[in-house]
Design brief:
Layout (H helix, E strand, L loop, with lengths): L2 H4 L4 E2 L9 H11 L9 E5 L7 E6 L2 E7 L12 H10 L10 E5 L9 E5 L16 H20 L16 H15 L6 H12 L8 E3 L8 E3 L6 E4 L6 E3 L1 H9 L17 H4 L4 H12 L6 H28 L7 H5 L2 H18 L1
Antiparallel strand pairs: 1-2, 2-3, 3-4, 4-6, 5-6, 7-10, 8-9
Helix pairs in contact: 4-9, 5-6, 5-10, 6-12, 7-10, 10-12
């Protein structure tokens, strides 16, 4: 593993501005966890992630993960840890692997923000999509497992999971474009010309047809925990952006890996996939379609979904850069991540122009 990716792995001491009131947290845990024995708590902070500060909380040999909203002024609807808690809890017996949850605290007086507790899942998190630490055959299996799990998610009946009201019905792509336009404009970071062009282009080129499924919203390799020694997924993390929406919007976000360059964007864009045992995008999409029981995807619909997702990613990165300015960013790597927004927006605009050329 390169030193660059090692910087994302494991925990570090908690930043001063993100310190927890461990006494108040212990009192809350005594009241809400049946098997909590009350040994003194300790906490460290996970290195990866930009949005919601995440902690490893320990008491004796027991370990939990605490997810909280960051302190300070936040954009409306962002950092929805309460939605994360709801969907993870609802999926506990769904066939999609998620950690066990223990409780949601909406009382901000406990540690200063809303938070929830879940199990700490021991396993492997991969940051580099070329999976250099694995043999060729296991790389193939890891990608197949990722494909299987997202197909399982999209095949679920939201009503059967108690999530029938987890999102608004209809017009998903239009509403998402409006949402990320608002998030982009509300950020204090400098404006990006390609984003302004996309904000005009995307609503005018919406594809026809509606589909609805439970979508993760940020399904990517480093949000998944794999078994310590097997290519088997143990948990899907980071459900902040989950909702009811278009499954191809969700799946194409996952497939952006094939379109992004390596390095800072952790993409597969110029990689010899066959040599590594990693499927091509077309083979990966084909496997997904077979699993969910759908026919070939219309190429223009697929390209639009990819363009939208690049736009959305750029808006997320732009928001992160704005939080650096505001002093609410959750990671020391936030500024570097935020600076990638113009490059991602440029990729999206180039793809939009290619779509125009195919009409």
């Amino acid at each position: 593993m390169s030193d660059r990716f090692a910087e994302f792995i494991g925990t570090c001491p908690v930043e001063e501005r993100l310190r927890l009131n461990l006494g108040a947290l212990e009192t809350w845990m005594r009241a809400h966890l049946e098997d909590f024995r009350g040994d003194s708590l300790s906490a460290s902070q996970f290195k990866g992630g930009q949005c919601n500060p995440t902690y490893l909380v320990s008491s004796g040999e027991r370990r939990w993960v605490l997810r909280r909203k960051p302190p300070g002024k936040l954009l409306a609807s962002a950092h929805a840890v309460d939605r994360e808690y709801r969907v993870i809890t609802a999926l506990s017996h769904s066939g999609v692997s998620v950690p066990r949850t223990y409780g949601l605290c909406l009382d901000e007086s406990v540690i200063g923000t809303v938070f929830y507790l879940m199990d700490y899942v021991e396993g492997r998190v991969f940051w580099d999509p070329t999976l250099p630490q694995l043999p060729r055959g296991e790389r193939t299996q890891v990608f197949d497992e990722m494909n299987r799990v997202i197909a399982t998610l999209h095949a679920l009946d939201p009503k059967a999971c108690g999530l029938a009201d987890f999102g608004k019905p209809g017009n998903y792509l239009a509403r998402q474009i409006e949402r990320w336009t608002h998030q982009y404009k509300a950020s204090s970071a400098p404006r990006i010309e390609a984003m302004d062009r996309l904000i005009e282009w995307l609503p005018l080129n919406l594809p026809p047809g509606e589909e609805a499924a439970l979508v993760h919203g940020d399904y990517r390799l480093d949000n998944l925990i794999f078994h310590p020694s097997e290519p088997r997924m143990l948990a899907v993390l980071d459900w902040e952006l989950s909702t009811l929406g278009h499954p191809l919007a969700d799946f194409s976000y996952h497939c952006m890996t094939w379109h992004l360059p390596p390095g800072a964007f952790r993409g597969l864009g110029t990689t010899d996939l066959s040599a590594l045992g990693i499927p091509s995008e077309s083979d990966y999409v084909g496997a997904y379609c077979r699993r969910v029981g759908r026919g070939p995807i219309d190429p223009l619909l697929w390209e639009f979904c990819l363009t939208y997702n690049l736009f959305r990613l750029a808006a997320i990165l732009h928001r992160i850069l704005g939080r650096v300015t505001d002093g609410t960013a959750a990671s020391v790597r936030a500024q570097e991540a935020g600076r990638a927004a113009p490059s991602i927006a440029a990729l999206a605009w180039a793809k939009a122009q290619r779509i125009e050329g195919r009409h």
